[in-house]
Every structure is written in structure tokens, then in C-alpha cells.
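Thread: magnesium ion complex, take 2
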Amino acid sequence: MTSKRASQGARHVAIIMDGNGRWARKRHLPRALGHKRGVEAVRKVVRAAGDMGLEALTLYAFSTENWRRPEDEISALMGLMKAFILADLDEFAEAGVRLKIIGDYRKFSPDVVELIEGALKRTATNTGTTLVVALNYGSQDEIARAAANAAAKGAVTVESIEAELDTAGLPPLDLLIRTSGEVRLSNFLLWQAAYAEMLFLDTLWPDFTPEHLQAALDDFAKRERRYGGR
Ligand code: IPE
Ligand code: IPE
Ligand code: MG
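Output below.
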């Protein structure tokens, strides 16, 4: 057996969708418009993920730290979330997309929670791409909750923690992409990224297209993953 293996195709890709604010600022537009264009990028990328045969696409939409933003920006983001579910759920549900949320979305306002739960129910038995949306998600919070649950059930081991993570049941994370030129994880999938490949792009999220995703998958397929072995 050769030690140099090309990667198989990616099954699970996660994206830190960053740069909406800078996209708007560059154009002297309000930040909210950057977020709006960001949602349009999401729409196209979710469609493409299905066509590209991804089993799971995880999108970082709102972090546990994003509550530090001004109230008007948070409410613009909530409004966009609602509008996205209302406008796009039918199409994605019919395309076989299964929705999954990681993070504690129950901290959002009741109307948002209700829409999310409706969408979860509606797509629960779908068997296409799993669209995982990280909402009020923070990896440290997730790991702490998982460890507490594992402890309550008995032994605290790598496996017992993993089984309690919000991502339990998803394929292992293959590729983590961050847009906007920032090279940090911002409390996203810290556990799951242990052996994920990373790709940091200068592109601002509203400018991200399915072509960028395809290029990322092509790049991933050429990488040699070793998992500590040789
Ligand atoms: C990412 O864009 C979207 C969210 C965090 C919700 P930003 O709003 O962080 O954009 P920048 O980083 O300020 O450009
Ligand atoms: C990470 O982006 C969170 C999301 C994309 C939802 P941020 O813009 O919040 O991250 P920092 O503050 O630059 O690290
Ligand atoms: Mg940002």
C-alpha cells in the first residue's frame, strides 16, 4: 500500500460565511444589504451542494458571540432568516434537502423558533443533502454541553462526547472553508475540525459562488490526508 493517498471526494463541507459587512462597506451600502446579498449566495450554494452530491453542508449563520452586535443588525439577521425559510423552504424541501440545526436556536424569538421547527419537521424524512445551519452556535458551548451529557450518562470518553455533539450522526467534517480573508475559526466546529482540511479565501461571502465551491472541492480532492500516520 502506498503511503501517499489522494483524498476521496468530500462528503461534508462547512463554511464560515464571513465578509458581508465589508462587502457592503466597500460599496457604501448599509450592512443589512450585505447580509441580504449573503443570503442570495447561500441560496445558490445550497442548490449547488445538492448537484455536487455533498452529503452535508454546514453553514455558520449566527455565533454565540454575534449577540454582541447592535440590536438593529441582529434584528435584520433574524428578519432575513425568516424570509429565507418562507421563500426557499418549498424548493429545498422538494429537492430532498434535510435541514438540521446545530447550536441553541431556542434562544431566538418565538416566531423564528416556530418557523425553524416547521422547516425541521417538513424536511425530517428527506434523504438528499443535509443542510446544517449553525444558529446561536459556539463550539465551546457545544463541547461543554456534550461533555456534561456524557458525564451524566457515565463515562467521559472521546466517543461518548462525540456522540453528544450537535453534529452527531453527520459524516466527519472533510473541508472547512472561511471567506473574507480572516484566518481564524471564531469558535466554529473546534472538535470536528481536528483532521478537517482548511481553505481560507479572500473572497467576501456575498461574492462566493458555486464555482468557488467546485474549485474548493477540486482542491480538496488533491490533498493528502494522513491523520497522523505515514
Ligand atoms: C458574516 O459577515 C455574517 C455574520 C456574522 C452573521 P459579517 O457581518 O461578519 O461581515 P464582516 O466580517 O463585518 O465583513
Ligand atoms: C463568524 O464570523 C460567525 C459567522 C460567520 C456567523 P464573525 O465575523 O462573527 O467572526 P469574528 O468576530 O471576525 O471572529
Ligand atoms: Mg465577520
